Amino acid sequence: MTGFGCVSPLGSDFETTWAGARAGRSGATRVTRFDPADYPCQIAAECEEAIVPEGVEAKELRRMDRGVLLALKASQEAVSRAALPIHEGNRDRIGVAVGSGIGGLNTLLHNERVLLEKGPRRVSPFTIPMAISNMPSGMISVHFGLRGPNLAHVSACSSGSHAIGEGTEMIRRGQVDAMIVGGVEAPIVGLAVAGFSAMKALSTRNDEPERASRPFDRGRDGFLIGEGAAILVLEPAESAKARGVPALARILGYGTTADASHMVAPDPNGAGASRCIAAALASADLSPRDIGYLNAHATSTPAGDASEVAAIRRIFGSAVETLPVSATKSMTGHLLGAAGALEAILTIAALRDGVLPPTINLDDLDPDCALDHVAHTARPSRAEVALSNSFGFGGTNVSLVLGAPGVTPA
Fold first, then answer.
1. In 61-171, where do the E strands start and end?
2. Rounded (10°) CA dihedral 13, 18, 19, 24
3. Which residues sit opposite 326 in a β-bridge?
4. Is there a catalytic annotation at residue 157?
5. pLDDT of residue 410
6. In angstroms, how far is CA 270 from the centroid of its own chain?
7. In angstroms, how far is CA 74 from the centroid of its own chain?
8. Exposed e or buried b for every residue in 201-225, given b needs 16+ CB within 10 A?
9. If I label 397, which of 10, 99, 277, 305 is the partner at 20 to 30 A Cα–Cα?
10. Residue 409 has what pLDDT?
11. Cα-flanking dihedrals φ and ψ of residue 15, to 5°?
12. pTM above threshold 0.90
């Protein structure tokens, strides 16, 4: 992994986001995109309102859903950081895989209102291309002129992690020379907030948004919906070395499974998640004791956090006593399809800088969720290998094993 970029509730680039995560800063606020007064949940983790990618004309900006703008901005930072050369000789060998759980929901809802208020002839001809879930990956491909594989993984909250894992496998197969991968979501619209609220999935701590997302805490009452994009540049190690670009991390292992249990609830015993973690470790040819840090999926829902802890305990056994665990959604909120990619970037930064970001708001630990939590403040670390989990509706699971640049893959 030679480059990354992000737009998150903690900042509109990687450096600002990472500084916020290290400091334990919450990106939560009262919703500003619409009047939330009548909603059970009135808080969210929003990005900066004005997100404008470089080199895109104003006319084109008006034809892009907010999710596309977020993804383009993050991809520009990632490609720049990687110093990835793109020219006529390699365009056919560079691909894009950027996932989204929901797609352009704001565009669909806006044009539905136009349809009802002004009639079908006033609906934008860009409604469908703006809204479909593969448009972020499509417009990244168009922007950089990339003619390799163009994919959009749609697997709820595992979308971004699936894109990273599958992009890695395409490189290992020799199908491509580089992949731009990650996830994006722009879901802070009334329908999404109302829908998640109706499921009792969102926190209702409306008077204290910064304290609402509290993974593993006894008082957790749901997640905090967030928006953002996180993009990574992947390429073979020998390619980066040949052009003198330092690797920022290595993708050592990738596991993916299904719970096959319930539409939205995780397997209460964490069976699917534990098989996923085991598959990722096997892919990396590593044992549980080789993992020095874990960035948990941990959304702050009562069932989800307990299920993940059960899976972690099943795989790591007594090693959990010395395995530091962070839940960065306590700060960023839950970016749905972008969550896994953002958490992979934060995990990579933690390995790079030797600093583990904290789980904030963990004031009253649920005994069922007892682990070695990095609570409240960041912790120094010498970890060189880490695990990042992403689990989603439909019972979809992804685990990524990430290593510092000097760690040699098996």
1. 94-99, 150-151
2. 130
3. 295
4. yes
5. 59
6. 21
7. 12
8. bbbebbeebbbbbbbbbeebbbbbb
9. 10
10. 64
11. -60, -45
12. yes
Q: Which of 157, 162, 369, 373 is catalytic?
A: 157
SS3 199: coil
pLDDT per residue as tens digits for the range 149-183: 999 999 999 999 999 999 999 999 999 999 999 99
pLDDT exceeds 90 at position 91: yes
pLDDT grade for 408, boundaries at 50, 70 and 90: confident
Closest CA to 296 of 239, 346, 240: 346
Burial string for 146-166 (b: 16+ CB within 10 Å, else e) reads bebbbbbbbbbbbbbbbbbbb
Strand ranges, E, within 160-299: 178-185, 228-234, 250-258, 293-295
pLDDT of 407 reads: 85
Q: Is 297 annotated as catalytic?
A: yes
Q: Are 365 and 373 in contact (CB under 8 A)?
A: yes
Give the active site residue among 41, 334, 369, 373: 334
323 Ramachandran zone, left/alpha/beta (phi>0; psi -120 to 50): beta
pLDDT given for residue 406 in this prediction: 83
Average pLDDT of the chain, as a whole number: 96
- Return the pLDDT at 117: 97
